[in-house]
């Protein structure tokens, strides 16, 4: 009998059960009642002279994930089980042992009082609680039933032993979120990336209705400190850039949501899955089909900072780099490169005379303010023209930078005289009136329903007034919606391709040197911004290929572009994000590398 077997036996577990393997245990004991959040029935039996109740159950790693690491609604003090045992053991008795000591409850010595308090997890904290008084003014007492759980983590799952019975009332509030509740909480957080704990609890009203409060999900989330803790745990990796494997190549993604946020043994980590957003500039071989929406954690890697060996094992796919992707400011300043839009012809051509009039006539008093809401705004705010006689208007509503550039190109090509007076209308009154007309056309049906609901008269002036209000409630042009995917890629690539003393040998163009050519023999280092490369003495041996290097690529340079998935034209994400201070795009230049060591 092993040491572990003896310790279990003396703790009151029948020897016959200790010697059985998990599947045998579940077959011989009597099924009685379920444990909280456990999908399958647990097993329970009473034995021995002490009359103690022991619950025995083997949980698979999938069940551990679904039950949030076997969460229970009791205050517990976790503990280790010594240095022996391994999570990769084939049998549970040789697995890694941990313990949970239940702290039970604090109650009142007044028999009619029903207040039940959750104890703190430290002895000093419990003493502090007992030194206080109950809400009814009576003395508090700590009920300790001596209940413990012992868990053995092994390759097949977790062997769970629960010993003892709680001889006291249940706690009056729950302590953990169920998997469905956690999913709802995470969804609200992702829809409100800038919201803090207080805002998430309160919810808020918006033009589109009331935004859901996390407090309606569970009473657990009524506590602001608990919501703060959940946010910190959730946002630990969420939003980070990573590399995901598709076939034999790796592509950039943004991490959105993991199926589980608790720590798991190494044997289970690859079973955790992440919902991801693939970088829109990825070019995948069509033979691989569409990339999946979620990825196993074992198929994800971070930037592998200073990890030379691991970088040499990874072959990179093809994508448009962050330094080759136009930023919002570039798109607007280079508006003549925007796509031509037939929709804008249909919307704006009937109004070309009024747009030209706004461009050519500086006297605002000759216009009817009702027909030109932007003029009404200028007169009311008493704005002054700039040096070229233009009025700068900082509103563009939910018009993206791509739409902004399209409308600017249409204005320049169709309004007589506009192409020679760009400074007068770009970001100014005439172009913003064009924005108003576009919004009025696209949202007319929605605006009309609002007017009918208020029993007000519907006419063209009212339509323009509502379109102008829609422009004003969104972000100003100087604070465009953050391109979170591009910001994420920039941060990831800066760490992937930095060549500096801090990066060490791992920064010296190490990707794939032990594995093989990158997709289509692509030079992944071409055009790296010079601020990412600094002088560093290096050895030529660092650039030697490993013995298993494959000089073949699944997709050679002779492959036609038709056999690659089209990279999506970079555009802003559709989800609402808070305005952020913009960072300058990295400038790609020819760089001078460090000196070779002899």
UniProtKB/TrEMBL annotation:
Residues 550-559 have a biased composition (Polar residues). Residues 543-562 are annotated as: Disordered. This is Uncharacterized protein. It comes from Suillus fuscotomentosus. The lineage of its organism: Eukaryota, Fungi, Dikarya, Basidiomycota, Agaricomycotina.
């Amino acid at each position: 009998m092993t040491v572990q077997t003896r310790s279990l036996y003396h703790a009151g577990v029948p020897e016959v059960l200790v010697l059985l393997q998990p599947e045998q245990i579940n077959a011989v004991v009597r099924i009685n009642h379920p444990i909280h959040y456990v999908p399958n029935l647990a097993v329970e039996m009473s034995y021995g002279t002490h009359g103690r109740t022991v619950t025995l159950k083997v949980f698979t790693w999938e069940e551990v994930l679904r039950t949030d690491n076997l969460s229970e609604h009791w205050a517990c003090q976790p503990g280790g089980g010594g240095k022996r045992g391994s999570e990769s053991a084939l049998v549970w008795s040789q697995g890694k042992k941990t313990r949970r000591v239940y702290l039970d409850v604090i109650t009142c010595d007044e028999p009619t009082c029903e207040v039940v308090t959750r104890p703190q997890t430290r002895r000093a904290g419990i003493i502090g609680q007992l030194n206080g008084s109950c809400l009814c003014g009576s003395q508090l007492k700590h009920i300790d039933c001596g209940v413990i759980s012992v868990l053995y983590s092994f390759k097949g799952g977790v062997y769970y032993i629960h010993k003892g019975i709680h001889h006291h009332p249940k706690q009056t509030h729950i302590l953990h979120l169920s998997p469905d509740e956690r999913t709802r909480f995470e969804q609200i957080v992702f829809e409100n990336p800038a919201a803090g704990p207080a805002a998430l609890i309160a919810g808020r009203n918006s033009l589109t209705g009331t935004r859901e409060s996390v407090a309606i999900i569970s009473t657990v989330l009524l506590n602001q400190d608990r919501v703060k803790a959940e946010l910190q745990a959730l946002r630990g990796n969420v939003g980070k850039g990573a590399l995901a494997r598709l076939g034999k190549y790796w592509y950039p993604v943004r991490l959105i949501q993991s199926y589980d946020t608790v720590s798991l043994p190494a044997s289970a980590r690859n079973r955790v899955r992440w919902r991801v957003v693939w970088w829109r500039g990825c070019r995948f071989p069509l033979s691989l089909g569409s990339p999946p929406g979620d990825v196993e954690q074992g198929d994800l890697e971070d930037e592998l900072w200073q990890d030379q060996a691991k970088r040499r094992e990874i072959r990179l796919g093809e994508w448009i780099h962050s330094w080759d992707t136009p930023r919002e400011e570039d798109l607007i300043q280079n508006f003549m490169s925007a796509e031509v839009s037939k929709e804008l012809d249909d919307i704006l051509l009937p109004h070309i005379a009024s747009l030209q009039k706004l461009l050519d006539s500086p006297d605002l008093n000759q216009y009817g303010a009702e027909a030109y809401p932007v003029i009404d705004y200028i007169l009311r705010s008493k704005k002054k023209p700039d040096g070229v006689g233009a009025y700068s208007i900082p509103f563009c509503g939910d018009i993206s930078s791509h739409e902004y550039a399209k409308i600017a190109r249409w204005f320049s090509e169709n309004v007589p005289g506009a192409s020679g007076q760009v400074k007068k209308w770009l970001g100014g009154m005439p172009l913003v009136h064009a924005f108003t007309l576009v919004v009025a056309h696209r949202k007319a049906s929605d605006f009309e329903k609002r007017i009918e609901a208020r029993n007000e008269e519907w006419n063209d002036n009212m339509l323009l007034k509502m379109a102008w209000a829609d422009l004003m409630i969104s972000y100003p042009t100087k604070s465009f919606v953050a391109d979170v995917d591009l910001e994420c890629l920039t941060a990831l690539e800066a760490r992937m391709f930095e060549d500096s003393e801090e990066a060490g040998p791992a920064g010296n163009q190490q990707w794939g040197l032990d594995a093989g050519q990158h997709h289509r023999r692509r030079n992944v280092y071409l055009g790296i911004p010079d601020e990412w490369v600094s002088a560093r003495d290096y050895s030529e041996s660092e650039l030697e290929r490993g013995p298993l290097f494959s000089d073949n690529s699944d997709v050679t340079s002779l492959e036609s572009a038709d056999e690659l998935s089209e990279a999506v034209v970079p555009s802003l994400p559709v989800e609402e994000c808070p305005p952020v201070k913009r960072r300058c795009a990295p400038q790609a230049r020819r760089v001078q590398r460090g000196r070779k060591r002899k």
